[in-house]
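Worked example
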Amino acid sequence: MRIAVIGTGYVGLVTGTCFSVMGNKVICVDIDAEKIENLKNGILPIYEPNLKQIVVDSYDKTLFFTTDIVKALDESDIIFIAVGTPMSEDGSANLSSVFTVAKKIGENIASHKIIVSKSTVPVGTCDKIKQVIQTELDKRRVNIEFDIVSNPEFLKEGDAVSDFMKPDRVVIGAEKEAIFNKMKELYSPFFRTRDRFVTMDTRSAEMTKYAANAMLATKISFINEIANICEKVGADVNNVRVGIGSDSRIGYSFIYPGIGYGGICFPKDIAALIKLGEDNGCELKLVSAVDNVNKNQKKLFLNKILKRFGEDLSTFTFAIWGLSFKPETDDMREAPSIYIVNQLVKRGAKIRAYDPKAIEEAKKVYFKNLDVFYGKNKEETLENSDALILLTEWKEFRSPNFSFIMQKLKFPLIFDARNQYTKLKLEEQGFEYYQIGKK
């Protein structure tokens, strides 16, 4: 098939690249000329396991990059809108880029197109996209048929290529049986059975994305609340997690205690869902509580450090392991590390940080005005540090040389925001070990 993907951010690039692997001709479009030139040369704007190799292998065969949206529209039958929908000040999704693309489509299409909304958008956005396109067609005084589809993405950063290539479901919102069949044909190479297709109307598809992320965020905030009460009553949340996770109705996914969720999806989508409820006279009490618990969780972790060292940290240096909001990505958007590092520096602390992928993001964007030392490896950050703070559960942090850590740190102190280690084992080695959900 002939596909255009407008927007080469996280969702657009993964979507276009994976479709190209199956032999489709895919044109990825972006207004950022520098980004497009970099993509042509195999330089990606994001880190995602296995993505770069697929881009390099597919480029100029089935995968193409351009800033020319008109050319891409002319040479495509299915058009994916995959531009960003960042959070506005009031919490709502900023849809300006979506409607700009819709206007361009209306101004330029010359034949029937299937327009697919891949961006995460509030309920009713597909209807508005349709109105924008039709308005432009009316201005041109042309009668061109087009169809609108909602096809939300369910990709996990750090595992997005695998998620796309082996989806557990594909949600398709449309109005015509012929369009459902066309979308099924497009996705059928990714699995042999069709029982993973979930078809519905566009508004239900749009809501499905928000509902899915809200449920996952709820599980995270729930286990963090349980962790907090465990600390108070002397229980161990690590044991509780196993106890409840073994119930098949609950499962183990997303019930790992920590310092809250980050990234762009959960915080943005939770805020947008709350705002959607407000705009429609529906107070989403549970979702609002999930958001509040998450925002408070990183403060509770900071308090563990302050309780141990005091408010004045001007004489202390901390080694930070992990800056990205989760492993296997360089994404630091809404990462708990932003809050923790800024709060420590605000109190006078010196920071020595290491992350396998996110250091450049930290330098250029999030900590560009802070005096932070970045180690070339995790061991280097320990030099002249008073304590170790683990914020992201990268694999290389799971089994460190604790004897080496003990030797390098001024104090045998570890603050573990991801419960990676065993408290008894570390205490036997002489460490003070602070984690989530256990005294």
The longest strand covers residues 2-6.
